[in-house]
Amino acid sequence: MTVPNQGEWLAELLRQVAQQLSRMAVGYDQIATELHRANLIELQSIFVERLDRAIDDPTLALSSITGLSDEKRRQMLNANAQYSLILMAHRVGHIDRSELLGYLKVLHGNDAFAEYWQRSAAARWNLPSDSFEARVGRAVDAIMDERLEDIEEWWVVGSEADGA
Fold first, then answer.
1. How far apart (Å, rounded) are the C-alpha atoms in residues 85 and 15?
2. Cα 88 to Cα 81: distance, rounded to the nearest angstrom
């Protein structure tokens, strides 16, 4: 039986330590990702709770949309809540890009959402152009401008791979 020299032994020990650290880093990344998702979900639940309160009592609503009846303000807040929940479902991986676009296409057919989208346009102008919200906002803008001449084509949503 041969005994490795000290240099070989030390090199092997360092290789093993590096492998363990690499496995730990992967585990840490997974934990960090899950914590991030959990925090997003918690934040969204707080947001929805606040929106629910504002829907119940429109005097609590903090909005740049003014000049609305209580009923109309409730509709706008509800449209915002629906839109936000769809975005959150995508962010946490519950729905994929195609489903996100499909849900947004469904929303676009709702008159209250269409009005909300038009009235809230100014709020989206200040978003960083490369942010998730701004990118989705541009997609919704395109959907809102879409001409729905052929109802069958309306439901066709491209895959991420083809860039649609």
1. 46
2. 10
